[in-house]
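Students often ask why inverse folding is considered easier than folding. One informal answer: many sequences map to the same fold, so there is more than one right answer. In these notes we will look at a single instance of the problem. The structure comes first.
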């Protein structure tokens, strides 16, 4: 019996395991060309101002864009914000260079749907080893022979702004490339776009890969073959997305670093929006019924906030 999620309904003939991993030409060539430009940035145009542009744009697009706009807001609806803020955040998330809004919802939700079944194939579970998983996740796609029905909510699917961003998601970089070129020449374009996109895409895959292998786990979801793990120490560079074990436990929560001492800059950003009156109805772990099979891992030391578990 296959599980359903908010956006995914299995059909009578749906199989979650039968399918093929295929090379995704557009995705692969896109990443190769960004990496080529990124290497050129470092090798041919090394500069402190280029590095500054890279860091500033990476923080803005990954934190406000990917983690808050795409993941916590558009995909999980874990807080409410005015539409114009939502558009800016999702647009920044598109600049990360992985997909447009619909592509991101679909990639996230299909992986999540697979990971909720009693049997999960190696592609959506990050089951392969390091190099093979890198190739599969960043250059290929997993096509099911008989996929489930996938429906994005109508107000998002029919939104003209999202349709436009989705249709031209790669070309959105041009909106950034023009001012970068005008003020910093080709060097700023290589640092601010090519290097940033390659580091972001590879970094996103690295977190996904290791966060499904082993790590800290405050809660586990019994009965599922795939578990999420926390990757302590990476809060500041992943903007809170490293608390992936918590995210498996409480997927609806705006706060990912839910235990004491777990740094979560994405959540700080949402709190800053709330202080400005621009975010409300921020969902916490306790605000929704617990997932089936959710179990607290007992602290190893009495009173300790966090637990270390080895992989099963
Ligand atoms: Zn996961
Ligand atoms: Zn998620």
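Output (designed amino acids):
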């Amino acid at each position: 019996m296959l599980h359903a999620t908010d956006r995914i309904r299995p059909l009578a003939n749906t199989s979650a395991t039968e399918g093929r991993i295929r090379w995704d030409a557009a995705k692969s060539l896109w990443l190769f060309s960004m990496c080529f430009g990124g290497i050129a940035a470092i090798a041919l145009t090394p500069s402190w101002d280029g590095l500054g542009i890279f860091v500033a744009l990476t923080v803005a697009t990954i934190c406000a864009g990917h983690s808050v706009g795409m993941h916590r807001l558009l995909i999980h609806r874990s807080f409410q914000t005015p539409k114009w803020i939502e558009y800016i955040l999702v647009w920044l998330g598109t600049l990360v260079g992985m997909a447009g809004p619909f592509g991101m919802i679909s990639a996230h939700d299909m992986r999540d749907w697979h990971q909720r079944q009693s049997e999960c194939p190696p592609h959506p579970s990050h089951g392969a080893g390091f190099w093979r998983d890198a190739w599969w996740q960043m250059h290929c796609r997993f096509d099911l022979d008989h996929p489930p029905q996938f429906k994005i909510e109508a107000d998002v699917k029919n939104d003209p702004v999202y349709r436009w961003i989705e249709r031209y998601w790669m070309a959105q970089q041009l909106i950034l490339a023009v001012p970068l070129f005008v003020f910093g020449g080709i060097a700023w374009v290589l640092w601010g776009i090519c290097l940033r996109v390659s580091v972001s895409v590879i970094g996103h895959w690295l977190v996904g890969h290791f966060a499904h292998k082993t790590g800290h786990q405050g809660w586990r979801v019994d009965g599922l073959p795939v578990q999420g793990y926390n990757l302590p120490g990476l809060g500041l560079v992943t903007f809170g997305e490293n608390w992936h074990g918590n995210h498996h436990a409480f997927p609806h929560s705006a706060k990912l670093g839910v235990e004491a001492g777990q740094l979560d800059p994405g959540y700080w950003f949402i709190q800053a929006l709330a202080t400005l009156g621009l975010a409300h109805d921020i969902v916490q772990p306790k605000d929704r019924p617990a997932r089936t099979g959710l179990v607290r891992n007992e602290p190893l030391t009495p009173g300790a906030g966090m637990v270390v578990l080895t992989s099963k």
